[in-house]
């Protein structure tokens, strides 16, 4: 698996993540002070500079001559504040962490997409200790001075990470982030209802506007949704070419009246009730739905015409009020058995090699969760395109036309 991951990460994106303005992300809010942003993107960014990835981050990453003062080690605080995607951490692990370290309050607040996370930080949110951006957004967090460098000497369990995920352009010196989970964007469907092939984005499109009109939900994430029309057109998921986006707009606006809802948090509920039988989404709901006899027919398709490969990460916020508890959590969650519990719970791939021997074999050997090499060639990583105004305008237009 490491070799195929290294290949996809190396070739997925040949340009580094561009510098971007946080004001552009805030612009997605249409001037509102509300923090419910309207787009997202999950994925990875890469370059050939990865060839020399080490087996684990060094204990003292290079800072380019800069002197770094890490928070001093001390007693683990009695509280911890996490800002994360919904249903993305095993309750068993949170309970075990609290018991082990005497943490009395472990608060778990959620965001729907990366833009909502960026917007909240831009608006001056404080009080959180750590958060979980997708990898290509980390350079923007660094540029905005919203996160702090990591002291790897306090995360010894990070030595178990797959080197394919290290020394990447979003963090070439392994200073700012710790890989969390990886996955793809694909098609979920209730196979007891949907008998037709759902192997390409075009087939998905035809079912949405045809037989299953009004029975499809998309995740509320601009970057993920744009994957569908761009791959139908044979284009890169990262395209910002006007002609490509004009053509993608035509596809999305024809789809919009047939879409039931945009929902990143509870789309599994709609699938379970059969209010929706098709979904552009992620593998997260698969484990729980397959375990329930009423929803065990749930299936996930990685379109053969290509899709998104994404990596989510852990980062510590600049003014984390509980740095010792944060480091304790980062090290705890990288323990191989705890990492395996995360994958067994949330249905996403782990970048922790040592965890694989503890993962349920039904998950580890399932190409839905750990794509085989044959599937990897059609996966593409992403750069942060969320500040492209044409994409923003199309996304807003698409959202306004949903169900119309």
Helix and strand layout, with pairings?
Blueprint: H1 2-11, H2 22-27, E1 79-84, H3 91-101, E2 105-110, H4 114-122, E3 130-131, H5 138-143, E4 147-148, E5 178-184, E6 186-190, H6 201-209, E7 216-218, H7 222-232, H8 242-255, E8 259-262, H9 267-273, E9 278-281, H10 286-291, E10 298-301, E11 307-317, H11 323-333, H12 336-346, H13 361-364, H14 373-376, E12 379-380, H15 389-401
Parallel strand pairs: 1-2, 1-3, 7-8, 7-9, 11-12
Antiparallel strand pairs: 3-11, 4-11, 5-11, 6-9, 6-10
Helix pairs in contact: 8-15
Structure description:
The structure is a single chain. The protein has 404 residues and is of the alpha/beta class. It folds into two domains: 2-182 and 311-372, Periplasmic binding protein-like II (D-Maltodextrin-Binding Protein, domain 2, 3-Layer(aba) Sandwich), CATH 3.40.190; 184-308 and 384-401, D-Maltodextrin-Binding Protein, domain 2 (3-Layer(aba) Sandwich). It contains 15 helices and twelve strands. The strands form two sheets. Strands 1, 2, 3, 4, 5, 11 and 12 form a seven-stranded mixed β-sheet that branches. A five-stranded mixed β-sheet has the order 8-7-9-6-10. Helix 3 (91-101) links the parallel strand 1 (79-84) and strand 2. Helix 8 runs parallel beside helix 15 (389-401). 50% of the residues are buried. The model is unreliable at 1-55 and 58-67 (pLDDT under 50).
């Amino acid at each position: 698996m490491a070799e195929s991951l290294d290949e996809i990460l190396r070739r997925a994106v040949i340009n580094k993540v561009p510098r971007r303005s946080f004001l552009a992300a805030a612009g997605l809010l249409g001037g509102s002070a509300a923090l419910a942003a309207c787009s997202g993107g999950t994925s990875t960014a890469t370059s050939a500079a990865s060839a020399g990835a080490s087996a684990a981050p060094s204990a003292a990453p290079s800072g380019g001559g800069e002197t770094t003062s890490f928070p001093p080690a001390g007693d683990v605080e009695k509280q911890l504040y996490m800002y994360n995607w919904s249903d993305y951490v095993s309750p068993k692990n949170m309970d075990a962490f609290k018991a082990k370290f005497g943490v009395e309050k472990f608060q778990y607040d959620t965001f729907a997409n990366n833009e909502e996370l960026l917007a909240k930080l831009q608006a001056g949110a404080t009080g959180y200790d750590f958060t979980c951006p997708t990898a290509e957004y980390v350079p923007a967090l660094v540029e905005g001075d919203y996160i702090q460098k990591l002291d790897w000497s306090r995360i010894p369990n990070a030595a178990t990470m797959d080197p394919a995920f290290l020394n990447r352009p979003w963090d070439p010196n392994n200073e700012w982030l710790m890989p969390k989970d990886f996955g793809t964007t694909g098609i979920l469907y209730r196979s007891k209802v949907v008998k037709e092939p759902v192997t390409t984005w075009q087939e998905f499109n035809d079912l949405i506007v045809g037989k299953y009109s009004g029975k499809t939900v998309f995740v509320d994430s601009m970057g993920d949704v744009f994957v569908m029309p761009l791959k139908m057109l044979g284009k890169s998921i990262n395209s910002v070419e006007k002609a490509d986006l004009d053509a993608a707009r035509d596809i999305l606006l024809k789809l919009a009246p047939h879409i039931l809802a945009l929902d990143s948090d509870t789309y599994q509920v709609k699938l379970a009730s059969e209010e929706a039988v098709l979904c552009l989404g992620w593998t997260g709901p698969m484990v729980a739905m397959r375990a329930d006899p009423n929803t065990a027919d749930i299936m996930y398709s990685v379109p053969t015409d290509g899709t998104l490969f994404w990596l989510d990460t852990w980062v510590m916020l600049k003014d984390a009020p509980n740095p010792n508890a944060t480091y304790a959590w980062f090290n705890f969650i990288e323990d191989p058995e705890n990492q395996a519990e995360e994958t067994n719970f949330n249905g996403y791939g782990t970048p922790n090699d040592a965890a694989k021997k503890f993962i349920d074999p039904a998950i580890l050997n399932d190409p839905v969760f750990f794509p085989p090499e044959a599937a990897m060639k059609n996966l593409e990583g992403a750069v942060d395109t969320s500040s492209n105004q044409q994409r923003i305008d199309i996304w807003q237009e698409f959202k306004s036309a949903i169900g119309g």
